[in-house]
Structures are given as C-alpha cells and as structure tokens.
Design brief:
Layout (H helix, E strand, L loop, with lengths): L12 H25 L2 E2 L1 H4 L1 E8 L5 H10 L6 E4 L4 E6 L9 H13 L5 E9 L1 H29 L2 H24 L3 E2 L1 H31 L5 H11 L1 H21 L2 H23 L1 H17 L1
Parallel strand pairs: 1-6
Antiparallel strand pairs: 2-4, 2-5, 3-4
Length: 301
C-alpha cells in the first residue's frame, strides 16, 4: 500500500533551515520550562506515600482531609484521579503509616456508617533512599540508550549519521519532556519507559531515512548530497506517513479511552511519535548534511 504515489518530489532540503530554527527556539523554551517549573516528581522518585481511593458516593474534600489527619497523614495533597477517584499524596513514608488503609477504612466507615461508600484501590510507600536510587537509574537508562545508539549507528552506517540520529533523539526527548512539564504532569517510572520507547522509535525512523540515503549515495555518488537526501526522503515518505499515522492513532486511542492510569504514558508516546517523525526529516538529516558540508570545506582548506 502506497499512501503517496512514486515520483513525488517535495523540496525538503530548502525547508530544513527554517525547521532547524523552529526546533532551536522550541528547545530553548523547553529548557526554560525546566528551570521555571521544574519536574513534578511522582512518588517513585520523590518518595512518600500514595493512596488511591474510589468513592461510590461523593464526599466533601474537607471531610476526607480531616479523616487523613485523624489517621496520621498530615499536609496531604488530594487530587482527582479519573472518575469518582482521588489520589492522596504525602511526603511521609515512615513506619507509622503501616496499616494506613485499614485505619482509613475504620474512620470513614464509622463516620458514614456505610461500608460500601468507598474502596481503597492501592497504597504505595517509597522511602527517600529508594526514590533517589530510582532517579539515578532512570537518568542512567536514558544516557546509556543515547550512547548505545550512537555506537550502533556509527558502526552500522557512518559517524555523521550517528551524530544526526543522536541529535534528533535528544531533541525529541527535550521537547516531549518540555511539553510534559509545561502541562504540569507527573514524572513517574512509566514515563521513563515511554521516553525509552520514544527514543527507540525516533532512531528507527531516522535509520530508515539514512539507509535510503546511503543506498542512493552508492548509486548516484556524483550527485550533491543535498539532492540525494531530498530524493531519499521523498522515496521513504509514504512509509513514514503510514507508519507514523497508525502508531499515533493507537496512542491517541489509548490516551482517549485507556483511563487515567495509562493516559500520561500514552500522551508521551503520542508526542514522541509526532516529534520523532519530524526530527528524522528536519533535524537528523540537516545535521548529516551540515556535517558533510563542514567536512568538505575543511578538506578544501
């Protein structure tokens, strides 16, 4: 199946300069967002206690807060979570909070004299040391994935392609995290998994384009690299659109109907697919072209 008929010739190379400018500005804005708002770390990284409660009948938030104070949970943050559910977060993670679900059940049951007015879905307690360790491992996972892909692409293709691919991947991670942070979403372990998936998708999309560029360079070595690159992107355009569209469609469905638990994960994947497709054409390819031009001018000098 071909979404775009063969022979199409869109001049991507002439538009790359403006796309690079747009990406540089967007990346700077994302870095400013990191410094301005900072990451909203989930319990996995920040440590503390998380309690998810589902209510079959609505109760006032003040009543729930008073109940939490009675059982020893002070300065709690109560957030809506999905339909008729709330998530209670507190920085406390001491042993005093053991059996907290039983105590909450007793207090609420005595107060409303109804045992079926609520249901505690989950209680998670993460100590500060564990949170720091998970943070360190998450950062290392992303960095090692970048280094591993740089080595693979450099061996599989050439160093210039490796540089282009890694720059595109770094661009995607920064932009997706910037949007995620700007919206005030919570950074958790599933988000790290989503970012690693985005990294894999982005580099795979770039490799498809690079592979066609390398084939055409061998066939038409006398032509300018910009001309060969433009033809290669046009030749892979149908495959790129079909693959990205179907993947983005699945992510959009997960975001819309997957529920609150998986929504942020699906959001990161959806944004990653969009920017991963964009970066393979307008970030990774221009870097390869700029690297080649720099190397050519250096040889002439």
């Amino acid at each position: 199946m071909e979404f775009i008929k063969p022979g199409i010739n869109i001049d991507f190379v002439s538009k790359m300069k403006w796309c690079v400018v747009f990406s540089v500005v967007l990346t700077i804005l994302c870095v400013i967002t990191f410094l301005w708002k900072g990451f909203t770390l989930g319990i996995d990284f920040a440590g503390g206690t998380l309690i998810q409660i589902k209510f079959f009948e609505p109760i006032p938030t003040d009543d729930l807060r008073k109940t939490l104070v009675e059982v020893g949970v002070k300065d709690a943050i109560i957030q809506p979570f999905g339909k008729d559910e709330v998530v209670v977060r507190t920085a406390e993670s001491s042993s005093d909070l053991k059996g907290i679900s039983t105590r909450i059940e007793e207090v609420l049951s005595n107060k409303y004299q109804k045992k079926k007015i609520f249901e505690i879905q989950r209680v998670e307690v993460v100590g500060p040391k564990v949170g720091k360790d998970l943070t360190r491992k998450a950062i290392l996972a992303v960095l090692f994935s970048w280094i591993g892909m740089l080595i693979y692409v450099a061996i599989r293709f050439e160093f210039r392609y490796a540089v282009g691919g890694i720059v595109g991947v770094i661009h995607d991670v920064i932009v997706v995290l910037g949007i995620f942070t700007f919206l005030g979403k919570e950074f958790t372990l599933p988000i790290v998994a989503a970012l690693l998936t985005v990294i894999g998708y982005s580099i795979h999309d770039s490799i498809v384009v690079f592979d066609r560029i390398r084939e055409n360079v061998r066939k038409e070595g006398r032509k300018d690299l910009a001309t060969v690159m433009n033809a290669s992107i046009n030749q892979t355009l149908s495959r790129t659109i079909l693959t990205s569209f179907t993947t983005a469609l699945v992510c959009a469905i997960l975001y819309a109907f997957g529920g609150a638990v998986i929504r942020d994960f699906a959001f990161v994947l959806l944004a990653g697919v969009v920017f991963g497709t964009y970066s393979s054409v307008f970030i990774a390819s221009p870097v390869v072209l700029a690297f080649e031009r720099f190397r050519t001018s250096r040889r002439k000098r």
